[in-house]
Amino acid sequence: MIFVTVGTHEQPFDRLVEYIDKIKKDNVILEEVIIQTGFCKYKPRMCKWDKMFSYKEMTRYVSEARIVITHGGPSSFIMPLQVGKIPIVVPRQKAFGEHVNDHQVEFAKIVAERLENIIVVEDIDILGKIIQKYDIVIRNMKKNIISNNAEFCNSFGTIVDRIISKNSD
Questions:
Q1: What is the rounded average pLDDT for all residues in the chain?
Q2: How far is it, in rounded angstroms, from Cα 29 to Cα 23?
Q3: Which pTM was predicted?
Q4: In a 10 Å sphere around its CB, with 0-12 CB exposed, 13-18 middle and 19+ buried, how is residue 107 labelled?
Q5: Cα–Cα distance between 64 and 30 in angstroms, integer?
Q6: pLDDT tens figures, 24-61
């Protein structure tokens, strides 16, 4: 199964949703596709979809999917990384009226370059080929992310303890 999410930004991302529906119709994609369409005006005919899914549904679809395709919002592409998957990231672009600027393009490219654990697709016309060759493309990519959450929480707790002990003296 392939899971696609465009996030919750109020500008439609019809370009991605329509393209996925088209390549499903053209049998470029043979497996089931589920799409979270957000504020898209285009309604897929070949794929299962809903405007929004609950967090529980999102995590289930991300976990079950063979491929996760997201827009360039960090929360959307971090979720698959957390379960050991390499997401295909199609950033929203200002030129297509999908966002107010190109920060998703810039951010996704930086993450891909530094961490080597996402596939950035700016030219949607190559997305079908990336999907077809996904297993080959990800073969040597980094599948895990390094989280500093525990270290941060421990350090923050130490600082809070010091502040509290100073104020109680």
A1: 90
A2: 6
A3: 0.83
A4: middle
A5: 16
A6: 999 999 999 999 999 999 999 999 999 999 999 999 99
Q: Which DSSP string do the residues of 93-160 spell out, in sequence order?
A: -GGGTSSSSSHHHHHHHHHHHHH---EE-SSGGGHHHHHHTHHHHHTTS-------HHHHHHHHHHHH
Both structure tokens of 43 = 């309604």
Tokens of 130: 């990336």
Please state the φ and ψ torsions of residue 101, each to the nearest 5 degrees.
-155, -170
- What's the Cα-to-Cα distance from 151 to each of 69, 154, 157, rounded to whole Å? 30, 5, 10
Two structure tokens written together for 59: 């995590």
21 Cβ contact partners less than 8 Å away, ≥ 6 residues apart: 35, 42, 44, 45, 46, 47
Cα(first)–Cα(last) distance of the chain, in Å?
60
